[in-house]
Amino acid sequence: MENKFIKESKAAIEKLIDDWKVKHKPVLSNYYGLEEGYEYDYQMSDSFVIIRKKEGDFYRLYVLTTDVADVSIRLTILTGKDYVINIPSRKPIDDWDGLLQKCGFDYYETYSRICNPKVATMKKRPTAIEEFAKPSDLDDIIELLSENFSPYTAHLPSREKMMQLIEKKRIYVDRYENGRVCGVNIFDIKSSAGYGMAWLDKGKYGLDLQLNMFNYFIDCGVKRLVGWVRDTNEKVVKMHLRMGAVRDGLKDYTYTKLTAK
Fold first, then answer.
1. 138/166 Cα distance (integer angstroms)
2. Rounded to an integer, what distance in angstroms lies between the CA atom of residue 100 and that of residue 230?
3. Which of 7, 101, 146, 171 is paired with 69 by a 20 to 30 Å CA distance?
4. Positive or negative: CA dihedral 108, 230, 116, 247
5. Distance, CA of 87 to CA of 90 (rounded, Å)
6. What is the pLDDT of residues 59-73, one digit of tens each?
7. Cα 191 from Cα 204, distance rounded (Å)
8. What's the rounded Cα separation, in Å, for the pair 69 and 75?
9. Burial (Cβ within 10 Å: 0-12, 13-18, ≥19) of residue 142
10. Are the beta carbons of 124 and 218 closer than 8 angstroms?
C-alpha cells in the first residue's frame, strides 16, 4: 500500500481541508488550523486527511477521519521517520488512545492550559534585571531551549518566528557573566490576552523574568495570561496558581512514534 504525501502550501492545504469538511463529518479530529513558517504535506482519501508539519527532525501530525478503521491502517504504516501527534481535549480521549496505541504510538506527556484572569488587577513590581533579547542572541536562545525543552511538547516558535518576537520585544533574557543568554521568558500578545510560550532560567533571576512579563502586560493593558504547564512540573504549576492562575480544563496529550533509522 502506497503511503505518499503531497507537498503543498499552508493556504492550499487549509482550502483542501475546508472543502473536504463540507462533504464529511469527522468522528475524530485534532486539526485546528495550521501555523505560518513551516513546511506541510498531506494525503487524503474519502474517509480521512492526514497532514504532516515538518519540525526539525520529526513530523507533527494532524488527522481528520470519518472511518477509524481506515485511518488506522494508514497510521500503522507510517514508519521510517519520527512522528508526534497532539490531542487537545477537555474530555477523556479513550477513542484516540485506543487508535494511537494500536497504530504503534506511545503515550509521551500531558500538558494543562492555565489562565490567569487577574493580570488587569495586578500592580507592577520592581525587578533586579530587565533586558530584552537582541537579534544577536537568537542562536544562544535556540540552543538554550533545545537543551532544556522537549521538541515534542514545547511547541516552540520557529527560528523565523523567534526573530520576529525579538524584534517586537517579546523576549526577556538573563545572562551569564560572559554575556551569553542563560534565561529567557518568551511571550506574545494578541488582543487583550498575553500568551506565555517558554520560561527558563539557568541563572538566579528566573522570577524576575516572570515579573518582567507581568509588568509588560500591565503596561500594555493585557487582561489575562494564557499558557501551558506540564502536569508533572508541580513547582511551576504551584507558582502559577499562587499568582492567580487556574486550570481551565483543556489538556494536551502527546503521543510519539519514533521509527527513524
1. 8
2. 21
3. 7
4. positive
5. 10
6. 999 999 999 999 999
7. 32
8. 10
9. middle
10. yes
Residues 34 and 36: their CA atoms lie apart, in Å, by 7
Amino acid, single-letter form, for residue 96: W
Question: Taking Cα atoms as reference points, which of 182, 243, 246, 164 lies closest to residue 210?
Answer: 243
Q: Which residue ranges in the chain fall short of pLDDT 50?
A: none
How many residues does the structure list for the chain?
A: 261
| Cβ neighbours around 107 below 10 Å, total | 12
pLDDT for the residue 2? 58
Alpha-carbon dihedral 156, 142, 188, 224, rounded to 10 degrees: 70
CB 194 within 8 A of CB 217: yes
Tens-digit pLDDT profile for residues 150-201: 999 999 888 989 999 999 999 999 999 999 999 999 999 998 999 999 999 9
Question: What is the 3-class SS of the chain, one letter each residue?
Answer: CCCCCEEECHHHHHHHHHHHHHHCCCCEECCCCCCCCCCEEEEECCCEEEEEEEECCEEEEEEEECCHHHHHHHHHCCCCCEEEEEEEECCCCHHHHHHHHHCCCEEEEEEEEEEECCHHHCCCCCCCCCCECCHHHHHHHHHHHHHHCCCCCCCCCCHHHHHHHHHCCCEEEEECCCCCEEEEEEEEEECCEEEEEEEEECCCCHHHHHHHHHHHHHHHCCCEEEEEEECCCHHHHHHHHHCCCEEEEEEEEEEEEECCC
- Cell 512522528, residue? 83
